[in-house]
Amino acid sequence: MSIKPTAETFQGVLVDADAQVESFRQTRISRRTELVEDYVELIADLIADGGEARQVDIAQRLGVAQPTVAKMLKRLAAEGLIQQKPYRGVFLTAEGSELAERSRERHQIVESFLCALGVSPATARIDAEGIEHYVSTETLQAFKSYLNNPR
């Protein structure tokens, strides 16, 4: 199956202003939540692996400095997504756990979809890390439907 771009789909057609505003609005919202989702998903993974998530481990896994992690952890605590315990680590609240689970599920769907298209597992994992934050509910459902009933 070959999809050929047409003038109506890609070239020379300015989309409706309201539609364009909505697409940019959705992208800005996704950008704001992307880091939060990455942090809670990683914290959940670290807790599942070793019983707790330490600031030093989060910094190492994300490839950022510990002060960067400390600043984000304050934000996550203020948003009610984590609890920090002195001399222990970081733990997710019920709300943080739910967010981590939703983010992980989106990631798995996108990664599986990319693999089903023939993308290598390594590339699919990397690409899914970005796409998962921006994919709409409608598109995610289409990915799931395709995975459940490939043509």
Description:
With 151 residues, this protein is mainly alpha-helical. The chain has helices spanning 17-50, 55-62, 66-78, 94-116, 121-134, 137-148; strands spanning 82-84, 90-92. It has a single domain (17-148), classed as Arc Repressor Mutant, subunit A (Orthogonal Bundle), CATH 1.10.10.10. It has 6 helices and 2 strands; from the N terminus they run αααββααα. Strands 1-2 form a two-stranded antiparallel ribbon. A hairpin with a 5-residue loop joins β1 and β2. α2 crosses α3, α4 crosses α5 (121-134) and α4 (94-116) crosses α6. The longest helix is centred in the N-terminal third of the chain and has 34 residues, at 17-50. The mean pLDDT is 87.
The number of E-state strands comes to 2
Number of domains: 1
Query: What is the CATH T-level topology?
Result: Arc Repressor Mutant, subunit A
What is the general shape? globular
Second CATH tier, the architecture: Orthogonal Bundle
Low-confidence stretches: none
Strand order of the largest sheet: 1-2
- CATH C-level label: Mainly Alpha
Order of helices and strands: HHHEEHHH
Q: What's the CATH H-level homologous superfamily?
A: Winged helix-like DNA-binding domain superfamily/Winged helix DNA-binding domain
Strand content: under 5%
Oligomer: single chain
Radius of gyration: 19 Å
Total helical segments: 6
Percent helix range = 55-70%
Classification by helices and strands: mainly alpha
Largest sheet composition: 2 strands, antiparallel
GO molecular function: DNA binding; DNA-binding transcription factor activity; protein dimerization activity; transition metal ion binding
Family: Belongs to the DtxR/MntR family.
Organism: Sinorhizobium saheli
Subcellular location: Cytoplasm
